[in-house]
Specification:
Blueprint (H helix, E strand, L loop, with lengths): L3 E2 H4 L5 E12 L2 E6 L1 E2 L13 E3 L2 E8 L5 E5 L7 E6 L1 H25 L3 E6 L4 E5 L6 H16 L4 E6 L1 H4 L14 E6 L3 E4 L14 E9 L2 E8 H22 L6 H37 L2 E2 L2 E8 L4 H13 L3 E6 L4 E6 L8 H10 L4 E4 L3 E6 L5 H13 L8
Parallel strand pairs: 1-4, 17-18
Antiparallel strand pairs: 2-3, 2-8, 3-7, 5-6, 5-8, 6-7, 9-10, 10-15, 11-12, 12-13, 14-15, 16-17, 18-19, 19-21, 20-21
Helix pairs in contact: 2-3, 6-7, 8-9
Bound molecules: zinc ion (ZN).
Zinc ion binds next to α2.
Length: 403
């Protein structure tokens, strides 16, 4: 039996009395079919209402082809005469976003002839997809301005069923997808759309419409927007963010752009300076390490493990040791260990091959050039054993001796 949909005539109805006419299941939940309901069933891009039915939470609402509105419930509902109450904050939020969508779609259509091909109302924001390859900044701004003008002019919003014979007289933005009487939602004279969704009494209830961003998707453009309470939340969030960053930098919000650009430049300069210093320091450090390293076949071998350096630092140091005629076997210890092996130009050991062989014994990987290579161990606990084995392979390699 078809359910009488109370929201068609009164979208502001928050609670109602109804009779359970059938019981079943929806999405794995116990569900009931009512003779009448103010709950909006998911459709047309608008999510389903939630709320309470006979004391039991309503989790989902769906309508089938016969016009039966089924309510999925958290638990089984007893009794046939029930009172339903909507989660009104959620419903009103959906009304603001959905009506805002009609106005924004109508604005893009009337200003630029860009039709809306789809609408999605998500938990955070809503989107429309326009049949347009690109939206310019000016188009986005103008459509947003026009939608807000219609909101602030507070036009009455009227939803009514129109007979097919009368339909031809109404300049519909979107052709109906159903046969027979069609529900038309009109926002003053600005927009007339075939729609089964819930809408406020007047455009002013949308409050404010803000386009967050536009993004090209293939041959279409996606426009993300927020209305009413969501626009206020966005504003609060952004204001707190900007104020927090400005305060931490002790500047005004209007100086943020320039300050961030300056900070990035100075960070860039500092990074290059650190780089230069690391290279210089590596030279001094390498002098010391090579001078004090034990010799093997006449070649100094430096073995060191560090915890507070980067792999980049280690590569510099290893290269500096190699330039000074030493072999460098350097490691970073930690949960996962990393190793660098380098040899002087006079030696012909293949560091990449040797390190790869040694690390594979411990489930590690390595590789690189004959003169300098690096590798890693998935388990840092094996680092000392891996260094021992690498050293052993180095010492027994006849190519270690300088040519
Ligand atoms: Zn609609």
């Amino acid at each position: 039996m078809e359910t009488e949909r109370l929201y068609f005539t009164d979208p502001y109805l928050r609670s109602f009395q109804a009779r359970v006419v059938a019981r079943g299941e929806l999405g794995g939940r116990p569900a009931v079919l009512l003779d009448r309901s103010a709950f909006y069933p998911e459709g047309g891009g608008q999510p389903a209402d939630t709320g309470i039915l006979g004391g039991v939470p309503v989790l989902d609402v769906q309508v089938n082809e016969s016009g039966e509105v089924w309510h999925a419930l958290e638990e089984t509902l007893t009794g046939d005469a029930v009172e339903g109450t909507l989660d009104w904050d959620r419903r009103f939020d959906h009304m603001q976003q959905h009506h805002g969508q009609h106005l924004l779609s109508a604005a893009f259509e009337s200003l630029y002839g860009l039709p809306t091909v789809s609408f999605h109302l998500g938990a955070e924001s809503a989107t429309i997809d326009l049949a347009a390859g690109d939206i310019t900044e000016e188009q986005r701004r103008s459509a947003e301005d026009l939608a807000n003008r219609i909101i602030w002019e507070d036009h009455p919003v009227i939803a009514r069923f129109v007979a097919p014979s009368e339909l031809a007289k109404i300049p519909l933005r979107k052709a109906p997808v159903v046969d027979g009487a069609v529900r038309v939602v009109s926002a003053g004279d600005f927009d007339h759309s075939a729609c089964g969704g819930t809408h406020p009494r007047s455009t002013g209830a949308v409050g404010l419409l803000h386009v967050r961003r536009t993004e090209r998707r293939g041959g279409e453009s996606r426009v993300e927007f927020v209305c009413g309470g969501r626009a206020l939340r966005d504003l609060r969030f952004l204001n707190a963010l900007v104020t927090g960053i400005s305060n931490s930098l002790s500047i005004g919000a209007n100086e943020l752009d320039a300050t961030v650009a300056r900070l990035r430049e100075s960070e860039d300069r500092a990074r290059k300076r650190v780089q230069t210093l690391v290279e210089e320091l590596s030279g001094y450090e390498a002098d010391q390490l090579v001078a004090n390293a034990p010799l093997s076949s006449g070649t100094p071998i430096v073995r060191r493990t560090y915890t507070d350096r980067t792999l980049g630092d280690l590569r510099y140091l290893a290269a500096a040791i190699a330039v000074r005629g030493g072999v460098a076997l350097l490691a970073l210890s930690g949960e996962k260990a990393q190793l660098v092996l380098a040899r002087p130009a006079e030696s012909s050991i293949d560091c990449g091959k040797l390190l790869k062989e040694a690390l594979s014994t411990f489930g590690g990987k390595g590789g690189g050039q004959p003169a300098i290579a690096q590798g890693g161990l998935p388990d840092g606990a094996w680092l000392d054993a891996a260094l021992d084995l690498t050293l052993q392979k180095l010492r027994s390699d006849p190519l270690l001796r300088s040519a």
